[in-house]
Design goal:
Blueprint: H1 6-11, H2 26-30, H3 33-44, E1 67-69, H4 77-82, H5 97-113, H6 126-151, H7 175-190, H8 217-232, H9 245-261, H10 279-283, E2 298-305, H11 308-311, E3 325-327, H12 329-334, H13 378-383, E4 384-385, E5 389-393, E6 396-400, E7 425-426, E8 443-448, H14 449-464, H15 481-491, H16 503-517, H17 524-530, H18 534-537, E9 542-548, E10 554-560, H19 578-588
Helix pairs in contact: 3-5, 3-6, 5-6, 6-7, 6-8, 7-8, 8-9, 8-14, 9-14, 14-15, 14-16, 15-16
Amino acid sequence: MILIVGAWAAGSCADLDVRSDGRIAYADIFRHYGRTSSYVSGCIGGISQISMTSCGGTSLGSFCDEAHDASDFSDGAVSDWYKGYATSSYFPIGDPWASLYQSIRRCNTFLLYIDDPEIATYPFREVEKNGWIAQVRVARAYYYLQLIKRYGGVPLVKVPYGTGHDYQADGRASFEECADFIISECRKALATEETSGPSTMGFRWDINDTERGTITRAFAYAVMSQTALYAASPLWNDGSGKYTWDKATEITKEALDQCLLHGFRLFTTKPAASVAQNAYAYYHITRSDPSRSIDKETIFESSAQTNVWRYAGTPITPGMDRAGAGPSQELIDAYETIDGEPVLDLDQPYKDADHLEPNYNPDNLTYKQNNPYENRDPRFYATIYYNGALRYLDGRSTTVDTYVGGNCGISDDVTDIRYTRTGYYVRKYNNYRSGTEIAGDGYMPIFRLAELYLNFAEAAYQAKGPDVLVRSTVGGEMLCARAAVNAIRARAEMPELPRGMSKDAFGKRYRNERRVELAFEEHRFFDVRRWKILRETDGFVTGMRIERGLSGAFTYERVKLAVRGTNEDKYLMFPINRSEVDKVEELTGADWQNPGW
């Protein structure tokens, strides 16, 4: 394997070992400090950069029941997905198999050579070298987590293959075996001696703002937390696997406790009313500061700006390209009223199969059908542009009018991608100042503390029930599932969930809470799969068509959008690309393809 190093060659007249065609040998990398450091950056550089366009030009939410993209009638990934055109040779969302294995190979190469005295001849400082090794181990674990979330168990490649590798000996590891490897790699990294203080070397908890993108110990714990949760989930565990809910509780509690003990906290800074609606909204338009002087919640953040204003914007925003992911009515229905009551009956949210007849919660006395957006969970106002929502343009407040004929209304022209199909637009991450001259929108978190709270809550309620306290193994406080969820709700200024709920009742509230808190953060797509509820959630979504009468009063009509062909069981997992499957079958005789593909 060779690397292009033109920039390195230009940096020094002494770099005469660079070949005339730009190639460089591994020995020439690892005898040079700058090249080795750059190689480490390359190992980490494959970490997903998620945004509102990272999946076929739109948000991943458009491919599940979070949203319906306005490009549904245009040729491309969205239309192909909704029509069920996915095959093992063409997967509209994208097929990261090859790119993830390329990143894994880079990591494997570094780990192979960094301790080889004949290759790595530069006198690296041990603390720095060990810190690099730890980061690369965790990056490799992260890449494997991304693979198994999509494909299930995959081949565990731990060293770079040479040209003479015998592929006939390769096989797919089980999901559990992959989870074992991921968690063991994180633990090996965490066993690295911890450095602190002003040092910029080693595997650390604390980094400074110039080190954005550095993998920290918190990142390793976040990978462990998500891996354990997925490994215990119904899609990957039929009840006989080693990753029981008890084991997942232990791992997710350890991860949460370690982060809390090292200063991570939920973001609670309240903004001025002219900046954002509440702390939750402010968090999602504020760039993280790796030193955690203000933002103590973000563990790792995508480097790709969301640019909601352009790719999922409102038509009244100058310079916007398309409406993009329009939040579904099902997502809107998930937001409780401010008194903490669900709007719909969570046991049976809809009376009909088309979701056009909502089954309202009889205990909710706050919700008004003729004024459905009043008195909702503050996260609703931070996440959704709805009919009548206030926003600022050119320093003046205006309303987002999504009624038919309004400035942002549903259009009957299905070829016009500037207008929502659902009656809603994404507000999360959108800074009202953003436009052609100012890029002020937020960045998606890849890991944040709120997810760790929710991961623990899910594992703990499944293992022990909502109210049973779980003892810490690392010195943190005892915590129960209900209290973990309530910590999230407190930041949102929502009432606590009460004591004494049954496991089933709490489970419904938990799933609803996770859906709301993590909306448009690329969790829901995987959650409905690992819970094995895809058939229930992803056949179609609905929207709200609003008409304004002569008196100015509004009427609200739920509308069913096109049926999607993507909720069959085969969509629980991504297909492995046909060309890859054919090569493996020719070499080994084994069919690696996932069920249904």
